[in-house]
Amino acid sequence: MIQKRLLAVFFLAMFSLASPTVSFAAATDIPDLLSDEDQGSEGHWNDAPPWDEDADINVATGSIADPLEPMNRAFYTFNDKMYVWVLNPVARGYGKVVPVGLRTGINAFFENLYSPVRMLNALLQGDIDKSGIVLERFAINTTVGVLGLADVADQEFGLKKQRADFGQTLGIWGVGDGFYLYWPLIGPSSARDTVGFSVDGLSRPTFWLIENWLISGELVTVDNLNFLSLNPDFYDEFRKMAFDPYIATRQAYFDYRNALIRQGKAGIND
């Protein structure tokens, strides 16, 4: 029985995580990464102030170091094939079976469930206003929103979702990107954000409240697969627009992550 569950979790995890779409968009909360509304004429993010003269050298040059590019490209190709051959068909099938209203509720539930992690990071960043908004959203959505199944805080009170993770926290503290990493089954990251991703994962309520790690893994799988079903065309559009999707993914990840850090340093809330 345990072996069957282990095998099921492994394949479900591959289905849900082996994709630049899920890992990039879910980790950074940007299903609208390619929208013109949020980008400038050169594809960079508008809503953050420019870097100061003491900025990290990688940021100053507008790119991130990629000394492991051959390995990263190999992992990118693996994830890309997994997306095309497995994840995308599974997600679209899931989307046809599960009504969009229910999928939206599931997405809101997990979004609310991970609020304590964002609130903690907002506090570590010294942003009291942001942490207060996250706490208000959590209280309202957990109660009035029925355990977070509905985003009442946004719909009725205008309290928008806030972005805060430990990778961003480290960046605000002055830790540089380090170098680019593209992980199999996870996707784009950096040396700094890999540490941040790990810390955030260990900080999630499901890690502490659910002793059975198989069940915890299944919940993560459902969350990611459900998210992708709500954004099925994200990665396909990205691939069509980019001459070299690998470089485009790397640059988009770098731009967005550093825009979040600039927002944090400037105290800009979403």
What does this structure look like?
With 270 residues, the protein is mainly α. It has one domain. It is 66% helix and 3% strand. It is built from 14 helices and two strands. It has a two-stranded antiparallel ribbon with strand order 1-2. The longest helix is centred in the first third of the chain and has 29 residues, at 69-97. The termini are far apart. Residues 15-21 and 26-61 have low confidence and may be disordered.
Rg: 18 Å
User: How would the global form be characterised?
Assistant: globular
The total tally of domains equals: 1
> SSE string, helix = H, strand = E?
HHHHHHHHHEEHHHHH
The percent of residues in helical segments reads 55-70%
Give the strand tally: 2
What can be said about the biggest beta sheet? 2 strands, antiparallel
Distance between the termini: 46 Å
- Number of helices in the DSSP assignment: 14
Largest sheet strand order: 1-2
Map the helices and strands:
Layout (H helix, E strand, L loop, with lengths): L1 H16 L2 H9 L28 H4 L8 H29 L2 H14 L1 H10 L3 H16 L8 H6 L8 H7 L7 E4 L3 E4 H13 L1 H5 L3 H18 L3 H8 L3 H22 L4
Antiparallel strand pairs: 1-2
Helix pairs in contact: 1-4, 1-12, 2-12, 4-12, 5-12, 6-7, 9-10, 9-14
List the main descriptive attributes of the protein structure presented here:
mainly alpha, 2 strands, 270 residues, two-stranded antiparallel sheet
Q: In a few lines, what is going on in this structure?
A:
With 270 residues, the chain is an all-alpha fold.
